[in-house]
């Protein structure tokens, strides 16, 4: 999770997302960075799926770095919160059964991949993603010694938001900003140059610290998160990062490219990404190193807590933790997560 401050998203007031990372150094997969080109072929390196899904992850059990009303359980204690269904779908959820006092902490899970990466194409298929009052779910990648190792937020929103946010966080070891006026333009099938992203650019300074933690962010369109995302049977998020760019695409269930379904992803055929950060304005190689994947569901905390009453919820976020029905939809269902490297 990250450290973010107040951010204005479209017409919805988005409060602060503050994150600090407590992260151990996992096993590292080293790979050379490759330029994204028409000739690039991607080879599968890791795939998290089915009954062995959780074998590739460590369970984070420390106090929530974002000050949430949450207890992150160990693998042994999370048998009811992190499991694989008979159909092979991996589930991560918040406890929606136990009695918790107002202002108390509720059980949840946060997992970190054992492997870390230096450049990758990450494709994640989610059948559903957690949402609900007080809920702060995320799928992201983070390096050691935050923010100096960098962070890429692939799926993140709070409460009952229905728009996803993509954000980068960097330290002082590399200059990194979002600049819509520089960088490569994606082209349509007829060769016409188009804008390099489809999302709404809401902040441009990626540098994150204790005093300024917005990061550089894009918001996706309506239905990219929350209840509408789940009603549409979820979708696929594809993240490409190398020395030249970090790009994030989202595909609805009925629009997943055939090359992804076949296991031969070709980003050049996917069209314009939702979010793009170019090496022209961001020193990607210096800013993003040894990133591990993370999936978690926090409760309240620095963003969901601060934004709680923007959804016309009564009382305080901390008090709402006592209502177990707030977590009936606080569940992430993962079909698979695949990590590819340029061959």
From TrEMBL:
InterPro entries: Beta-glucanase-like, ConA-like_dom_sf, Glycosyl_Hydrlase_16. Coiled coil: none annotated. The keyword Signal applies. GO terms for molecular function: hydrolase activity, hydrolyzing O-glycosyl compounds. Keywords: Hydrolase, Signal. The keyword Cytoplasm does not apply. One of its GO terms (biological process) is glucan catabolic process. It comes from the Eukaryota. Residues 35-343 form the GH16 domain. Transmembrane segments: none annotated. Residues 1-18 form the signal peptide. This is Glycoside hydrolase family 16 protein. It comes from Thelephora terrestris.
């Amino acid at each position: 999770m990250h450290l973010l401050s107040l951010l204005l998203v479209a017409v919805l007031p988005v409060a602060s997302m503050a994150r600090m990372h407590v992260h151990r150094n996992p096993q590292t997969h080293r790979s050379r960075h490759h330029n994204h080109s028409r000739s690039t072929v991607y080879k599968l390196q890791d795939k998290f799926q089915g009954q062995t899904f959780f074998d590739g992850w460590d369970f984070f059990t420390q106090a929530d770095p974002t000050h949430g009303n949450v207890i992150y359980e160990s693998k042994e204690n999370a048998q009811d919160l992190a499991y694989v269904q008979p159909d092979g779908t991996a589930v991560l959820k918040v406890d929606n059964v136990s009695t918790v006092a107002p202002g108390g902490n509720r059980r949840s899970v946060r997992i970190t991949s054992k492997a870390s990466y230096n450049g990758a194409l990450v494709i994640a298929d989610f059948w559903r993603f957690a949402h609900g009052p007080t809920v702060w779910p995320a799928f992201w990648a983070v390096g050691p010694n935050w923010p100096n190792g960098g962070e890429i937020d692939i799926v993140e929103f709070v409460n009952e938001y229905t728009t996803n946010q993509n954000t980068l966080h960097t330290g002082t070891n590399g200059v990194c900003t979002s600049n819509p006026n520089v960088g490569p333009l994606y082209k349509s099938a007829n060769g016409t140059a188009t804008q390099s992203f489809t999302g709404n650019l809401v902040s441009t300074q990626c540098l994150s610290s204790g005093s300024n933690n917005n990061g550089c962010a894009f918001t996706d369109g309506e239905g990219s998160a929350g209840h509408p995302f789940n009603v549409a049977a979820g979708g696929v998020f594809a993240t490409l990062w190398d020395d030249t760019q970090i790009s994030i695409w989202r595909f609805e269930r009925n629009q997943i490219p055939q090359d992804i379904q076949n296991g031969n992803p070709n980003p050049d055929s996917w069209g314009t990404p939702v979010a793009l950060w170019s090496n022209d304005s961001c020193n990607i190689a210096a800013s993003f190193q040894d990133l591990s994947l993370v999936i978690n569901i926090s409760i309240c905390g620095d963003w969901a807590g601060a934004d709680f009453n923007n959804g016309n919820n009564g009382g305080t976020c901390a008090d709402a933790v006592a209502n177990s029905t707030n977590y009936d939809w606080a569940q992430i269902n993962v079909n698979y997560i695949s990590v590819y490297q340029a061959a």
